[in-house]
Sequence to fold (714 residues):
Amino acid sequence: MEYDADVIVIGSGALGNNAAYELAKQGKSVIILEAGKSIPRWKITENFRTSPRKNNYNDPYPNAATAPTSFAKDYIENTGSFAYLPGMLKLVGGTTWHWAACAWRYLPSDMKLKSLYGVGRDWPISYDDLEPYYCRAEEALGVSGRSDEDQSGQGRKHFPPRSKEYPMPSDGINYMTSRMNDRLGKLGYRFVQEPSARPTNQPYDGRPACSGNNNCMPVCPIGSMYSGDVHARHSVKAGAKLLTEATAFKLEKGSGNKIEAVHYRTAKGEDKKLTARYFIVAAHGFETPKLLLMSDVANSSDQVGRNIMDHNGLAIQFLADEPLWAGRGTVEEACIVNMRDGNHRRRYAASKHNIGNAVPNMAVTERLIAQGIFGKELDERIRHDAARWVDISSMLETLPMPSNRVIPHPTKRDALGLPTLSVHYDVPAYTEAAKDIIMRDYRRIAAGMNGSIVNEVSEWQNHDHIMGSVIMGKNPADSVVNGECRSFDHPNLFLATTGVIPAAGVVNPTLTGVALAIRTADIIAREV
Amino acid sequence: MPEHPKPSDKKPSPRREFLKIAGLSAGSAVAAGTAPLLAEDKNENDRLQDQFFQISIFLTGHHDLDRALSSRALAALIAVDAHFPAKLQNLQQALASEKLTDSSLLRTSPIGKDDALMATAKTIVSAWYLGYAGEAASHAMEDNAHFITYSGALMYRPTMDATVIPSYARGAPSYWVNPPASIQQD
Fold:
């Protein structure tokens, strides 16, 4: 049989493009399908600057009726107690256009959650299995970080173990973090530098060093921060073919339980079909299970679209008693990680506090104007409060629950006539059990900075870290893919999405997703 | 201080009434090319523009506001709320009778106890400081928000020496290791 390609990758985000690049580099013929268009960075930056909705991270990006983002009207319907609404984009490069480049490794214990703490699920692979691929993912994304810190927050020497240094050392600790560490460190709070997918003090892979434009979300205007478009370009240069405005809507089964073809619809509504030896679905944590369910494939476990997780969030804002000047550097500089691991995970969720470093003028000014403060006093207070503004947001661990689910919407259709999404999500009791502990910890932190509290956010927040939706495991009866990210039902179907992650931890899962995608590419390259 | 309204300003013209019903300002009707502007309407539009500009200077305390930006802000505020010109008129009258010397005094004056007047004042100050009008949606694409300016938003002026307007850069990589030069005075 003649095939259109050795491998077809569905989705041109960071994960799909990294897999595509590895395969193309090894001489495999690769086609990448992308639902959206390609648009240049300068246009996105201009869209941001001329938008009235600066806090809407999807807003500067294309939102075509034929490739809607997650914020398009009625695209995601929520039926659970929590409105799970991640900021998903559809364009070449995917949603890492507006991540903040936090490039963490999971901990060995995250992958043995059930064995160590008796909750949730274990990963089918170990940290040691993934470690070499973490190194490659860090090289692909150009991660800068510190290898001398205990990123698990347990006060040990460097952890987790690494076989190679970060591709680049971290840049210096910003003034705000230094001051907070000086004061809160005495109370036992353990700060770590955010490992970050951006060059520091030197160019890397054609990207300039970060110069602190403080706009990682929604767009890095200078292309220092990694986004998936980097490996779209690398893939094409290595020989991959990239088709845009091509929305996959059906995977076709052939003989031997293999996937034989993908059907996609163009923006003009024309349907086309492509065949390949292997398929990688890398179409986002929600859209990947949607495509599998629409195609009636890979679901003998009945777990496709179930077990969805996020890092549900809480937050506090307060004014410290000294000027710290948030806003100098990137939007994410440091975290407090005391509760990232430990025996408490037997009873309640692990967590991590992010010290926000975005220029706070918008929030500061809105608050002062609402109090009727105008004129010279307003200008003085903006400076005073912006200098002292502390915004801490936390990411909490969640557990996979089959009732937390994404499905193709039973009735609603987009402009292409394809189903939109229906999501049901309730925050797990394990996560709820940590809420009071976090809110109390916030007050202790605020008191440690002699701060006056502005706002305590105890309503759960979205953090857009989609996991669990096509869960990985050892048992075909309760898992969608195995430890290779290969479908239990179709030997030539692989999934490259953070949706495979079976235990959420508390860190941004993108680096792990890229490491798994590179590993998947290596496995496929040996077989195809 | 904004000027006292002239007695003649209180007399409604048939055309202004029409524009009000149609939900349009004279300015937006002209911009859309839907109707030629009568001399009387031009005067009214100029008067509205002047009134808004003067009140903006008073409320913000900034005497160097840009006239073109003022027109953009006014158009945005009218696009969000067709009744804005009438609310502006009410605020002007109240300000004229209070004779305040500084907008910092507004919230402790009798105007500060009038929710409607304070809401109008806050709307105007927000437009200049935040650079947009309306309610901006963070997780949806449909709202009534209108863009006015970004780098011209007054909220960035008080901190320009210490932090960037996001997406713009200043200084070399890692400059953020040190505090701003002003730290001892902050």
